[in-house]
Design a protein that fits this description.
- The chain has 16 helices and 17 strands.
- By secondary structure, the chain is an alpha/beta fold.
- Strands 5, 6, 7, 8, 9, 10, 11 and 12 form an 8-stranded mixed sheet that branches. It has a 5-stranded parallel sheet with strand order 4-13-14-3-17.
- Helix 6 links the parallel strand 9 and strand 10.
- It is globular and about 85 Å long.
- The structure holds adenosine-5'-diphosphate (ADP) and magnesium ion (MG).
- Belongs to the RuvB family.
- Keywords: ATP-binding, DNA damage, DNA repair, Helicase, Hydrolase, Nucleotide-binding, Nucleus, Transcription, Transcription regulation.
Length: about 450
């Protein structure tokens, strides 16, 4: 029997948090007519590419397109990954967005096609409607007693609606939850009968006079009407992959936590697909096509590319967004070269978005945003110097100098990064150009330069 994950279980699963290089990006920074604002939501410049990404985003949101691929092509550090991140943020939590690097599939302990299948199924959501039996009411009183002999806790909970009032007996688990959620008289709560999970909806309006005592963050809600116990429709979105994993072994959820899912048998997937199709027919579920983002896509080989090609033809296919910084390059697994290292048949299906190098002003803006993100104070002159360095070397290199130069500044007990700090780290950490120059000068002294591929 194929089982769908329950809402409360899914809530406990933390979605992967992405911090670091792109943490400043909160969206694509577009206005209502999908025009890119020069600086918005952490995004700077690259207006055309952002606009194109926005158009695609709208198509995804409408859920009407499947079997499309988008290729973001451009030089290193021109914001390809940043744009994909912006799209992910703009899509919201309800639409699955999976990221992987092309090279990842070679390092996982499973076949390439299994790794791709998992990535594809992670990117397809199933929105499931469920009827849950709940108890919803305003807390009139909570009474907790500890038995003198056994030490066990027992108690009573009195809940009311505008029409009725009932006393419930509390077990130890419920008491623990009530205490953890800090539920007190005057709170409006729901209890899921199947899982006994308690959620706090807010404070009853009738208790609005306690406002001062509760602080400004209190949210007020009406005391529920009618019966205390009712059926309520709840909707939650899970991915096909999550359903796969939960049904593929006894310890499904643990596997999901550990990220150690192993290969999933195709019979399991077939059963699941069939079941999901039934749910759709019964109106219990909807498919939500999400996005699979494959960064550095030129790292895939020809087997992967043809697998993707075929996968895109299935009717529940996610949108595939690829990114590459390659121009004309060898297609891995063949002796042929192709534009962006991607075979022509896949390119032919793809909408191509180009990213362009940044202007000085744009680099300055991005650096400034990163300073704020990394909590680094910097003088205008230091920022100017960093901008020049960014223009001369690479955006990424100059971004990396922000934290390092702030460490140098802190060492001299300054609260602001100044020009000498930036100079110092510039001389400490060489960039690519200088590294290459250095290597050329001293080539003969490195043994690994003998091995040429
Ligand atoms: N348009 C932009 N607005 C804001 N930050 C950007 C923009 N483009 C790039 N960045 C930031 O610059 C760094 C390098 O960009 P990245 O997206 O990794 O480049 P690419 O993937 O094209 O090599 C990242 O930290 C990224 O978040
Ligand atoms: Mg990138």
């Amino acid at each position: 029997m194929i089982q769908a994950p329950k809402v409360q279980d899914m809530k406990d699963l933390t979605r992967m948090e992405r911090i670091g290089a792109h943490s400043h990006i909160r969206g694509l920074g577009l206005d209502d007519s999908l025009e890119a604002r020069q600086v918005s939501q952490g995004m700077v410049g690259q207006m055309e590419a952002r606009r194109s990404a926005g158009v695609i985003l709208n198509m995804i949101k409408e859920g009407k397109i499947a079997g499309r691929a988008i290729l973001i092509a451009g030089q290193p550090g021109t914001g390809k990954t940043a744009i994909a991140m912006g799209m992910a943020k703009a899509l919201g939590d309800d639409t699955p967005f999976t990221m992987m690097a092309g090279s990842e599939i070679f390092s996982l302990e499973m076949s390439k096609t299994e790794a791709l299948t998992q990535a594809l199924r992670r990117s397809i959501g199933v929105r499931i409607k469920e009827e849950a039996e709940i108890i919803e009411g305003e807390v009139v009183e909570i009474e907790i007693e500890r038995s003198v002999t056994s030490g066990a806790k027992a108690g009573k909970l009195i809940l009311k609606t505008t029409e009725m009032e009932t006393v419930y007996d509390l077990g130890a688990k419920m008491i623990e939850q009530l205490q953890r959620e800090k539920v007190v008289a005057g709170d409006v709560i729901t209890i899921d009968k199947a899982s006994s999970k308690i959620s706090k909806l807010g404070r009853s309006f009738a208790r609005a006079s306690d406002y001062d005592a509760m602080g400004a963050q209190a949210r007020f809600v009406q005391c529920p009407e009618g019966e205390l116990e009712k059926r309520k429709e709840v909707v939650h979105t899970v991915t096909l992959h999550e359903i796969d994993v939960i049904n593929s072994r006894a310890q499904g959820f643990l596997a999901l936590f550990a990220g150690d899912t192993g290969e999933i048998r195709s019979e399991v997937r077939e059963q699941i697909d069939q079941r999901v199709a039934e749910w759709r027919e019964e109106g219990k579920a909807e498919i939500v096509p999400g996005v699979l983002f494959i960064d550095e896509v030129h790292m895939l080989d020809i087997e992967c590319f043809s697998f993707l090609n075929r996968a895109m033809e299935s009717d529940a296919a996610p949108i595939i967004i690829m990114a590459t910084n390659r121009g004309f390059a060898q297609i891995r697994g063949t002796k042929y070269r192709g534009a962006h290292g991607v075979p022509i048949d896949l390119l032919d299906r793809s909408l191509i978005i180009m990213t362009r190098p940044y202007t000085e002003e744009e680099i300055r803006s991005i650096l400034k945003i990163r300073c704020e993100e990394e909590d680094v104070e910097m003088t205008e002159e230091a920022l100017d110097l960093l901008t020049t360095i960014g223009l001369d070397t690479s955006l990424r290199y100059s971004i990396q100098l922000i934290t390092t130069s702030s460490l140098v500044a802190r060492k001299r007990k300054a609260s602001e990064v100044d020009v000498p700090d930036v100079r110092r780290v510039y001389s400490l950490f060489i960039d690519l150009k200088r590294s290459q120059q250095y290597l050329k000068e001293y080539e003969s002294e490195y043994m690994f330069s003998e091995v040429q591929g």
